[in-house]
Amino acid sequence: MLKVKNLTGGYFGNPVLKDVNFEINDGELVGLIGLNGAGKSTTIQEIIGLLTPYSGLIELDGMTLLQDLYAYRKKIGFIPETPSLYEELTLREHLEVTALAYGIPEDVAMARAQKLLETFRLSDKLEWFPINFSKGMKQKVMIICAFLIEPSLYIIDEPFMGLDPLAIQDLIDLMLEMKKNGSSILMSTHILSTAEKFCDKFVVLHEGRVIAFGTMDELRQHFGNESASLDEIYLALTQQAKAGAEHE
Ligand SMILES: Nc1ncnc2c1ncn2[C@@H]1O[C@H](COP(=O)(O)OP(=O)(O)OP(=O)(O)O)[C@@H](O)[C@H]1O
Question: Which residue range or ranges hold the ABC transporter domain (predicted)?
Fold first, then answer.
């Protein structure tokens, strides 16, 4: 379970995030949504420990990063928006390095990887180097490495960019399977129609603040329209927040 409590943080002393609060229970898929510059990537960087909060607390399964950096990091599988692979390592070596870094026995890792490689149609490319992969294939390697770990929390930044429709469906199926196994998932996305279908809850960020957090039903109630789509709610919420800021 992830708890983000009163998080204020950002870059070089500039608080991009202001008093951010939300939680992800075990077995929950939460969508992180917001306009360009709203603070989604900054939130993710705070959770994975690339940034240090100015104030507030981030707790994963009751543990903070400061209590045990290595144990905390081992609980997170992160899939960045832009794939970053080691040019000098083959796909097989990427899997081996991931298993080593997360303390997973090689036979266990390779057994898990086999299924994932089949799902993403990369089984015959184990000896390939990243330079020979397309952008979507590189992203699939990042996905396989993250799912190989079977972490407590998956953080997936813009998962649907660059993936073909088949791979998107495969990724969604995997997320749903991991959710069933009790993992928590935080997914940042601009593809609201897909998010609406699969996410249990939504964190709506606007200019570094959480302007709504809850299930689709809770957001609809808040909005006062029982049949509104996430797109409609989201646009209305951001306009309300903009009008509020202009009024101040
Ligand atoms: N490395 C950085 N140094 C300084 N400011 C940054 C840095 N990265 C982002 N910011 C600022 O933080 C704010 C939030 O940016 P962030 O990247 O978190 O937004 P986002 O919601 O992920 O946007 P997008 O949808 O465009 O990816 C923006 O005002 C941005 O200019």
Answer: 2-232
